[in-house]
Amino acid sequence: MEIEILILVVSFVVLLVLNVPIAFCIGISSVLTIYSLGNVPTGMIVSQRISTGIASFPLLAIPFFILSGILMGEGGMARRLMDLASAVVGRFPGGLSYVNTTTCMMFGSVSGSAAAAVSSVGGFMIPEMTRKGYGREFSVALTTASATTGLLIPPSNVMIVYAVVAGNVSVAALFMAGVLPGVLMGLLIMGAAWFQNRKAFAQLSEKQPDVSFFKALWGALPSLLLVMIVLGGILGGVFSATEASAVAVAYALVLAVGIYREVRITDLPRILLKSVKTTSVVMILVGASQAMSWVLAYQNVPQTVSASLLAISENPIVTLMMINVLLLVVGTFMDMTPAVLIFTPIFLPVVMDMGMEPVHFGILLIANLCIGLCTPPVGTCLFVGCSVGGISIAQVIKPLLPIFIAMLIGLLAITYIPSLSLWLPRLLDL
């Protein structure tokens, strides 16, 4: 057993260091490990696991939500959400920082993409905050961290991926479980922004928002209705999460092309091609990870990990802390989707043995990996934010540190206060 797992780990790490795409790292290392077993048909196992792994009805929601997110991202939604956020929190000292975070939360939840939130919101907010005296480094740091909160607020593609990998987990329950943790993370980031700039905020004189609250709400309401339609339809039993994704595409298309009129018909082929490329990457990852999951299960890795963690300590508090630390380290060099695909089958049995509900662990896992999106060396949002802001990663680390601490406080709250994640699903009997 030790030799096979060593082959899996070493081949995966070597391929990762060689900058091989993560899906191929997973697939090739799985093939090599299965071949080393000697007593199983490698080709048949791998092909079956890949084909059955992506033959899942809930996974159909991913390409639809990706397409709707792109349509909304290019359809003028970010500016309208920014006007609403400005009308709500823009009057406070340091208001632009709160507008930034609030807009990223709303845009990330509707678009389902943290990177899109950084580029769309940051493209306007980073230059504006810099011009108003907030500092380019702080503006980039705030935008980068704030964009990740939208992945906790539904609808979220990564929640669908987790539900498929975990098995027998309600997507609707996951969607509702992420609302309070997502809002908490956003508020903590705002608090960190105020704490490290409280003196400067008091001296910043900002123009009062030009748009009244009701006018801004009216302008942003069609965008916000996407979330209401998706969640309302799922919770009301009108359609499933997968069917809701198709409704989201139809609604986003009407909104972007017919109402906002910022997407032309001639833009649709390019948008469709972009969504197909993104979907293909996700599906290859899911299929390859199913082959790796078979290897892990065949070699009893989850049971071994569980026994090893319990051998260190049987205290659930300590065990969850160790899992969080491991996931935080993983998040520094691995993107969110492959990390969910790889580590869910390893850690989920461990936490379930301790009595943790799969929905709660899913939110813990996603919140943890959200922090990884803005940490070097492989933080996707960090790279996008620095690119938009025109600064280096080294320059943004210092203003990011207080925000990291705030996000870690939020992660600890999500980990050790189950009701943050479970209260809404239980209230709605999901």
Shape estimate? globular
Count of beta strands: 0
Rg (CA only): 22 Å
Distance between the termini: 40 Å
Q: What is the count of distinct domains?
A: 2
Q: Largest sheet at a glance? A: none
Poorly predicted sequence stretches spanning 5 or more consecutive residues: none
Instruction: Report helical residue fraction.
Output: over 70%
Your description of this structure?
By secondary structure, the protein is mostly helical. The protein folds into two domains: 40 residues; 370 residues, no CATH class. 79% of the residues lie in helices and 0% in strands. The protein is built from 21 helices and no strands. α1 packs antiparallel against α2, α4 packs antiparallel against α14 and α12 packs antiparallel against α13. The longest helix is centred in the middle third of the chain and has 31 residues. 50% of the residues are buried.
Topology of this protein?
Elements: H1 2-17, H2 22-37, H3 42-54, H4 61-74, H5 77-89, H6 95-111, H7 114-131, H8 136-147, H9 157-166, H10 171-177, H11 179-203, H12 213-235, H13 241-259, H14 268-298, H15 301-312, H16 316-331, H17 336-353, H18 358-372, H19 380-389, H20 393-416, H21 419-427
Helix pairs in contact: 1-2, 2-3, 2-14, 3-14, 4-13, 4-14, 5-6, 5-12, 6-7, 6-8, 6-11, 7-8, 7-19, 8-19, 8-20, 9-17, 9-18, 10-21, 11-20, 12-13, 14-17, 15-17, 16-17, 16-18, 17-18, 18-20
What keyword list fits this structure?
430 residues; 2 domains
Give a brief rundown of this model.
The chain has 430 residues and is mostly helical. Helix content is 79%, strand content 0%.
